[in-house]
Amino acid sequence: MTSAIRTQVGIIGGGPSGLLLSQLLHLRGIDNVVLEKHAREYVLGRIRAGVLEHGFAELMREAQAGERMDREGQIHEGFFIAHEGGQERIDLHALTGGKTVMVYGQTELTRDLYEARDRLGGKVIHNAEGVQLHEIDSAHPSLTYRQGSETRRIDCDFIVGCDGFHGVSRQSIPKEKIQTFEKIFPFGWLGVLSRTPPVSSELIYANHERGFALCSLRSSALSRYYIQVPLSDTVEEWSDERFFDELKHRLPAEVASSMVTGPSIEKSIAPLRSFVVEPMRYGNLFLAGDAAHIVPPTGARGLNTAGSDIYYLYHALVDHYSSGDDRGLESYSSRALGRVWKGQRFSWWMTKLLHRFPDDSPYDRRLQQTDLAYLFSSQRALASLAENYVGLPF
Ligand code: FAD
Ligand code: PHB
Description:
The protein is α/β, with parallel strands linked by helices. Helices cover about 35% and strands about 30% of the residues.
C-alpha cells in the first residue's frame, strides 16, 4: 500500500546540508520534506567538522539557528603550523583584514538545526529506508521510501540530494551523464575526542617525520586531536595511551609537555579522499554537500563548501518560487563547482604540505620543506593561505 504526499522540494539527507536548506526554504515559505535514513541520535553521534567560516556562520544566523553558536562558539583569529621542532602562527585576522573563523562542532550545529526545524514544525522523517528517486529528468519527480511495512511516496517539483558521499542521489544519475574526479590518499586520520582542557587555545597543525598531527578543540574542557595513520590501522590497535604517546611525539616539546591526557569519549579513523562530480544537477535533481564532493579535512573545507552549495541553491529556489526566475537554478552547478574546485585545490595543497606520503622521495621531502620555508618567508603566501582558510567569498 502506498500513501502519497506533495511538497515543493524533497530533500534527501538530514545532515547539516539538508537541515540547513530545509530551514532556510521553510523561512521563505517554500514547503519541503527531509528524508533521513538514520535516527536523530545516530546523526548526532558523528563527530566531524569543527571549524566554520564566516559565511557558514551567517547562514546559520539567517536560518534562525545561530543563537547557541554565537554564545558558545569560539572566534579564532589564528592558528599554528608546527614543523622542525617549533611552531609559527598564522594570524588570520591580520592577514585577511579582520576575518576570523568560528570553532563550533558539527554535532552541536546539527543539534541546533534539528531544534530549529522542530520549532517551526519542519517535516524531517527519520528512519526512511530504501529511499528511491523517480523521474528525476521530468517536471514531476518523486521519492519513495519505506517506513515499517508501508511504502510512502512524495511528489515534488525538485529533489535535492544532501545524502553525503555514500547516499543514493548521486547514484541515481545515469553514469554517462556525469563525470567523477577522485584522488584517494594513502593514509587516514585517527581522531580522538577527550574531556580534557585543550593543549592550545588555537589549533596546531603539525608536520612531523612520524606523520601529521592536529590539535583542535570543541570547548575549554573538550579536546579534539588527530594523527595521520596508515589505512590498514584499526581503532582497536590504538589504546588511548598509545594515541597520546604518538601525538606528543609529533608536537614541539614545549607543547607536548603541557598536554593533559585523559580517556577518549570517541575514537574513529577517517580515510582521506578528494572527490568531485560534475555537473551537480541532473534534470530536477540537484546535488549539494558531500553528495557531490569530498575533501581531505586538512583545510577544514568540507562543511564550509557544503554551506556555499546551500547558499546558491537556496537563493536559486527562492528566485524560482518568488518570481519565476530560473537563472539561479540554471547556473547552480557551474557557480557551485567554481568554489568547490577552489576548496579542492586548497585542501590538496594543505594535505600535501603537512603529511608524510609513504612514497615520497628525498626530492619530494625537500620540496615540502621548501614550501613551508617559502610560506613563512612571504607575507603574500601567508595571505593566500589565510584567505582560503577563512573562506573565499560565495
Ligand atoms: P553528511 O554530513 O554526510 O550528511 C548526509 C546525511 O544523509 C546523513 O545524515 C546520512 O545518514 C543521510 N543519508 C545517507 N544516505 C541516505 C539515504 N540513502 N537516504 C536518506 N538519507 C541518507 N568540514 C569543515 O568544513 N570543517 C572541518 O573542520 C571539518 N572537519 C572534518 C573532520 C573529519 C574527521 C571529517 C570526517 C570531516 C570533516 N569535515 C569538515 C567535513 C564535514 O564533516 C562534511 O563535509 C559534512 O558532514 C557534509 O555535510 P552533508 O550534510 O553534506 O553530508
Ligand atoms: C576538528 O576540530 O575536527 C577539525 C579542525 C580543523 C580541521 C579538521 C578538523 O582542519
